[in-house]
Amino acid sequence: MSSVQCNNLLQWYGKNARKLPWRETTDPYRIWISEIMLQQTQVKTVLPHYSNWFEKFPDTAALASASMDELLKSWEGLGYYRRARFIHQAARKIISEHGGTFPEAFDAIMALPGIGRSTAGAIASFSFGQPTPVLDGNVKRVLKRWHNRPAVTDKQLWAWAQDEINGSANPAGWNQAMMELGATICSSRSPNCSLCPVSHNCKAAFQPVEANAAKKIPVKHLHWQVTLHTCPTRGVWLTRRPDSGIWGRLWTPPITELKSTPDTPACHIHQLTHRKLHLYGSVADVSPAGDGQWVSNFDSIALPTGIHRLLEKHGVHYG
Ligand code: SF4
After folding, report:
1. Confidence (pTM)
2. Ligand 1, atom 5, residue with closest C-alpha
3. Is the pLDDT score of 27 beyond 90?
4. Domains and CATH numbers, the chain
5. For residues 85 and 245, what is the distance between their CA atoms, to the nearest angstrom?
6. pLDDT at position 61
């Protein structure tokens, strides 16, 4: 990209960028949390969680000393709970290996649990002004179109992004502008080339959208029997999910995966990115067995949103 094009991009960003709280700080702790929350979760869902988060966990030390259950409870509604577990591990690593100060070196940022190259690039550029590119899905799409190379490898995309950012006097601005361009103008299905600040430099400008942009990963359907043990005095019986897999470490009533699709409709269908969970609630007439606990207040215990909805449909509400 020429310096003129780069200036166009930065000027466009300066005039059109959405006002978002994580763009008004260079604090690496706040940038880090925003970047992790925004992975696979929409901005409008992240916004209320983001501001609440810092009331509960104002700094890395508060995060590191919190229990996993506290973190998972605060993460409730954001989905992909593995991210909360990584944040907890990373906070503890920052305390033990960096004396509580967020590391500045790119390699040290990338060595934190849950932080890949693109997230490390965002933190290093937004917080410390380093020329480290972000290569999220939006930036990849924009670069592919600029070069009109829809099937290009990630290796080449990283090389292009690094070249561009090396030639920019404002690495953080370049990253932010590219992410914003992909999120708002150069969308997957209908790029708005007439409003694009770099259309003169784009080999795919005003061309039909590439065929593979519309390709969808097939959704997998899972059918889960959710067994409800309830007691007027003790609440509902919950067990902890395994560490890995869907809803890892969250609390749910006992769940059994069904081998075939039941004849009756599901009580609740919960959509994940590439999976659809069909939840069939059944009220148990025997006492619960195995590990678990009776819970009559959900204030400090993290349940998946899909389970909240199922319980509501069965008239189970706790504090
Ligand atoms: S000109 Fe069109 S296709 Fe090219 S980057 Fe801009 S919006 Fe995307």
Report:
1. 0.87
2. 142
3. yes
4. 3-211 (1.10.340.30), 220-313 (3.90.79.10)
5. 13
6. 97
